[in-house]
Thioredoxin-like fold domain-containing protein (Amycolatopsis azurea DSM 43854), 244 residues
Amino acid sequence: MAQARGVAGGDKKKVVAITVAVVVLAALVIGGVIWTTSSKDSTEGKVIGAQTGTWGPGVVEKRDGAAVTAGKPEAKKTIDVYADFLCPICKQFEESFKDQIHEQVNNGTLQVRYHMLPMLNQRSDPPGYSLDSANAALAAADAGKFLAFHDALFKDQPQEGGRGFDKGQLIKLGQDVGITDPAFATAINTGVYEQQIQDAYKKISTDPSLQQDFGNGPGFGTPTVTANGQVVKLEQGWLEKVLG
């Protein structure tokens, strides 16, 4: 009888332990779903922070199709930067080298030709942020505010795989960096430059001169920087080498 009671008691403990484990697991799953959803939607309702910037007087920005050139007319050197507003490595590039690039642009040594691409267009939820932001940046360039817009979108970059900023938030950022022309909002809402951007990306991504070996054969990736038609290896001191 004692043995029978011992078995019964052990079974009860097992049932309780299993029940507790199931409840804990359920709580973890629910908590994970809530955390993931919260993280995914972290941009909802957020105001993108307008950046004060470090671009000096005399820096001119000009849109040329789906690219934007920024710098002073007397600059002797030009680099091309290929990036995606959703690309985390592109943000790291900005954080690592932005101050050096700004300094050289401000002193009239360097011009930068920016190509904002929709490479990760399917990596936002819902898809489309890379294209929306690239289109908005070109519209900002028409208003002379590309650089401020560009810097703000990288500073407050959405999480890859999460919700990007919607068109209303992009329009608000434009207003906050000083764009007053109503054509800016219209350009964003209608996607006026989307086809140009997509056409440019198709051409760029298949350009043999922009291919790099990322360990699994040649391909195109962001960020890519070129100077004098050659891909630049992004290591410490690369800009000094370009400027020669």
About this structure: The beta strands are 60-64, 67-71, 77-83, 110-116, 212-213, 218-219, 224-227, 230-231.
